[in-house]
TrEMBL record:
This is Glutamine ABC transporter ATP-binding protein. PANTHER family: AMINO ACID IMPORT ATP-BINDING PROTEIN (PTHR43166), GLUTAMATE_ASPARTATE IMPORT ATP-BINDING PROTEIN GLTL (PTHR43166:SF9). It comes from the Bacteria. Residues 10-251 form the ABC transporter domain. GO terms for cellular component: plasma membrane. It is found in: Cell membrane. It holds the Pfam family ABC_tran. Belongs to the ABC transporter superfamily. Keywords: Amino-acid transport, ATP-binding, Cell membrane, Membrane, Nucleotide-binding, Transport. InterPro entries: AAA+_ATPase, ABC_ATPase_HisP-typ, ABC_transporter-like_ATP-bd, ABC_transporter-like_CS, MetN_ABC_transporter-like, P-loop_NTPase. It is a peripheral membrane protein. GO terms for molecular function: ABC-type amino acid transporter activity; ATP binding; ATP hydrolysis activity.
Amino acid sequence: MTMSFSPPLVKVESLHKSYGPNIQVLKGLDIEMKPGERVVVIGPSGGGKSTLLRVIMGLEKIDSGSITFGGKPYISSAGRDKKTIIDTEVRRSIGMVFQHYTLFPHLSVLQNLILAPCKVRGEKKEIAIKRAQALLERFGLAAKANSYPAQLSGGQKQRVAIARALMLDPKLMLFDEVTSALDPELVAEVEQVILQLAAQNMPMMIVTHDMWFARNIASRVIFCAGGAVVEDGPPEQVLGSPKEERTRDFIDRVFHIRQ
Ligand SMILES: Nc1ncnc2c1ncn2[C@@H]1O[C@H](COP(=O)(O)OP(=O)(O)OP(=O)(O)O)[C@@H](O)[C@H]1O
C-alpha cells in the first residue's frame, strides 16, 4: 500500500527577526500549518504576531530561519551576507488584510478589485469585472461597486479589502487584527465574511484579540509570546473555558498566569 504524503502548507523554522540591533522580536519561532487549517495566533501586545504575518507575506526581511510553502522553499536567509530570499511566485499566492484599510482612495470599489488581476496577472478587464461583481454580490456589497472608499463604513471597507485579496485566488489568507479598528457594531459583518471563507475551507492565519471569534474560526490556536510559541493546540485547550471574556485583558491575564 502506498501512503500519500501531503507537505505542510506553511512550515516556519527557527525564525529570527529583529528591528535594528536592539529590538529582537522573533526568537526562533517554529510553526507548521497543515493544508486546510485555520490557525489563530494570540498573545500579548508586542509579542511579534503582526511581525510573523508580515514575514509570511514577504513584507519583512528576516535575520535567520526559513519558511516553506507547500513543501517548496519560500523564504530563507541564505548566501554570504544572509540576504533574505523570497520566492515572488509563492508570495503572489498569499493574500493579506490589515488592521487599517489599505484600499486605494482614488479608485472605486470595483476598480480596487480589478487592479491587481489586470495589472499583475494580465487578466482581461471584462473577466475581472465579472469575478469582482460576483464577489461583491457574495459579500453583500453589490450596490457599492461604484462607490469610493471614503463613502463606505469601516466594516464595508474591510469586506472590500477581503474581496480584493480574494481576486488573486490566494492559497492562504492572512488576517492581521482586521476588526480592531472597527466600531463594535461593525465587527460582526466582517467576522461573518471570514467565517464564510472558513466554511469553504480557505486556509488562513489570523491574528485577533477577539476571543469569541478565535474560538469560532480556529481549527488550531497558537499562543505566541516573547518571540516564540508558548502553546499550540486546539482552541478549547489553548483558550480555556468559553466563558472567558473577549478582551485584551484575557490574553494579558493568561500570559501572566503562565509566566
Ligand atoms: N517597523 C518596526 N520598527 C521597529 N520596531 C518595530 C517595527 N514593527 C514592530 N516593531 C516592534 O516589534 C515588536 C513586536 O511588534 P508586533 O506588531 O509584531 O507585535 P504584536 O504581537 O502584533 O503586537 P500587538 O498585539 O500590539 O499588535 C514591538 O515591540 C514593536 O514595537
